[in-house]
């Protein structure tokens, strides 16, 4: 199974720590979704929105064990959902991604989330404080 990552899991170090492995990857875009910052947090969520587009990383051939770890890490705020992404070469692929649950959509702010801003200003805070790390122990 493949995974489209659009937030903190785009970072190879975080993805390796969370999934327990390293996977081949490439850039991809998820159409008809938007990425917003979760209120009061340094990480994002995505929701469906016609005409939207979210850039991210497509990881290939994750193991069941990796997805078990990812499901625990993402927690109840997200649901793993099948979606289609477009790779840089124009190829469309079906993949899994984590979408904020309908009951939690109100927790998304109006602020767009920036990967570059996360890496520069919030990665260390996230690695030290996100509750999902506790679920992996």
Structure summarized in a few sentences:
The protein has 137 residues and is an alpha+beta fold. It has helices spanning 12-19, 64-74, 115-121, 123-129, 132-135, and strands at 3-5, 25-38, 44-59, 78-87, 92-100, 108-112.
Task: Please describe the topology of this protein.
Elements: E1 3-5, H1 12-19, E2 25-38, E3 44-59, H2 64-74, E4 78-87, E5 92-100, E6 108-112, H3 115-121, H4 123-129, H5 132-135
- Number of helix segments? 5
Count of DSSP E strands? 6
Distance between the termini: 24 Å
Tally the structural domains.
Answer: 1
Spell the H/E element sequence: EHEEHEEEHHH
Mean pLDDT: 95
User: What is the general shape?
Assistant: globular
**Approximate strand percentage:** 35-45%
CATH superfamily: Gamma-glutamyl cyclotransferase-like
Helix content: 25-40%
Detail the poorly predicted runs.
none
Profile the largest sheet.
Answer: 6 strands, antiparallel
Radius of gyration: 14 Å
Structural class of the helix and strand makeup?
A: alpha+beta
Highest-level CATH class? Alpha Beta
- The name of the CATH topology is Hypothetical upf0131 protein ytfp
CATH 2nd-level architecture = Roll
Write up what this structure looks like:
- With 137 residues, the chain is α+β, with helices and mostly antiparallel strands.
- It has one domain: Hypothetical upf0131 protein ytfp.
- Helices cover 27% and strands 42% of the residues.
- A hairpin with a 5-residue loop joins β2 and β3.
- The radius of gyration is 14 Å and the shape is globular.
- The model has no long low-confidence stretch (mean pLDDT 95).
């Amino acid at each position: 199974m493949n995974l489209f990552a659009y937030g903190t899991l785009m970072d190879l170090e975080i993805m390796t720590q969370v999934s327990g492995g390293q996977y081949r990857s490439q850039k991809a875009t998820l159409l008809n979704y938007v990425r917003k910052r979760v209120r009061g947090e340094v990480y994002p969520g995505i929701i469906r929105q016609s005409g939207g587009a979210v850039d991210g990383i497509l990881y290939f051939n994750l193991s069941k064990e990796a997805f078990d770890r990812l499901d625990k890490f993402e927690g109840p705020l997200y649901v793993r959902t099948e979606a289609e992404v477009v790779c840089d070469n124009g190829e469309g692929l079906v993949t899994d991604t984590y979408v904020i649950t309908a009951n939690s959509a109100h927790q998304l702010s109006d602020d767009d989330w920036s990967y570059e801003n996360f890496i520069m200003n919030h990665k260390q805070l996230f690695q030290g404080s996100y509750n999902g790390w506790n679920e992996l122990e």
